[in-house]
Design a protein that fits this description.
This protein has 272 residues and is of the alpha/beta class. Helix content is 39%, strand content 24%. The protein has 9 helices and 13 strands. The strands form 3 sheets. An 8-stranded mixed sheet has the order 3-1-6-7-10-11-12-13, sandwiched between helices. A 3-stranded mixed sheet has the order 2-4-5, with no helix packed on it. The protein has a two-stranded antiparallel sheet with strand order 8-9. Bound molecules: 3-hydroxy-5-(hydroxymethyl)-2-methylisonicotinaldehyde.
Length: 272
């Protein structure tokens, strides 16, 4: 069984980051280790307030113990992290990689044209350091624009503009780019999947509801599926189907996340 380390916060309540990645990646049949660089009472996307315990100082201690014991991983998947976490993460990737280890980067920092609360305006340039050399980078349109200092266009763009944004992401050092939230047709929403030489698209019927945490569900299923041998296009298509199914399974009054728990059987079946 492949072993993946996910490095992103624990938001104790809110169905995002580690609390989504661990169950979904495990359901894919991939052993999932976790390293939370911060613990929050709840996520910052709609709750009124939160506590934040930074664990930057602990990351080096963890790395030291892993190095002492020869603990290594076949893949790393980073999500929501802060500036102080980036150097310790790059160090762990350097010292704890099995040969050929893959690096998945979800630059979870922004949506709908805005950085998440708490990130400084120059944070995207720090996140870009994680994208350099990553095997798979999975930004939404806002994150892609911020990472590449491009104009944020959430609608009314051409395919050419999308493909030029993708080219800029490759220039940051990303080997494969999965750009999410792409739409050329008002009733379809999907992603563009680029390996640097060809760009493929996957679309689903656009749902009227948008929910928090869907980017984390998408990235987790994508990483799990790639680790189980799916191509990037197959993994992106499966991740999008699971996100849509999870949104549809979420009751209207459940505002802070998606009920991904209800679609775990579909994921297990699809991965086989
Ligand atoms: O879903 C991304 C995410 C992860 N972690 C925290 C967040 C968010 C988005 O708002 O606030 C703490």
């Amino acid at each position: 069984m492949k072993k993946l380390l996910t490095i992103q916060d624990i938001s104790c309540v809110g169905q995002c980051s580690t609390t989504v990645a661990l169950p979904l990646i495990s359901a894919c049949g991939v052993e999932c280790a976790i390293l939370p660089p911060a613990i929050l009472s709840n996520h910052t996307g709609g709750f009124k307030t939160w506590s934040f315990a930074d664990l930057t100082g602990e990351l080096g201690n963890v790395e030291k113990k892993w190095v002492e014991q020869g603990i290594k991983f076949d893949a790393f998947y980073t999500g929501y992290v802060c500036e102080s976490h980036i150097d310790p993460i790059l160090s762990i990737v350097r010292t704890c990689s099995n040969e050929g280890a893959l690096r998945f980067v979800d630059p979870a920092m922004a949506d709908n044209g805005k950085l998440y609360t708490g990130f400084a305006d120059d944070f995207p340039s720090k996140m870009a350091r994680l994208c350099d050399g990553a095997d798979y980078v999975l930004p939404n349109l806002t994150e892609a624009a911020f990472l590449t200092n491009s104009e944020v266009k959430l609608s009314g763009y051409t395919q050419e503009e999308i493909e030029s944004l993708i080219a800029k992401l490759h220039r940051l050092g990303a080997k494969n780019v999965i750009l999410t939230g792409v739409s050329f047709d008002s009733d379809k929403l999907g992603s563009a999947i680029s390996d640097g030489s060809k760009i493929e698209y996957d679309f689903n019927q656009r749902l009227t509801r948008m929910s928090h945490g869907t980017g984390d569900v998408f990235a987790s299923v994508f990483a799990g599926a790639v680790m189980r041998g799916k191509t990037a296009l197959e993994a992106a298509a499966l991740a999008a189907d699971i996100v849509c199914e999870a949104i549809n399974a979420t009751s209207d009054d459940h505002w802070y996340g998606v009920s991904f728990e209800k679609v775990m059987p579909s994921l297990v079946n699809a991965i086989g």
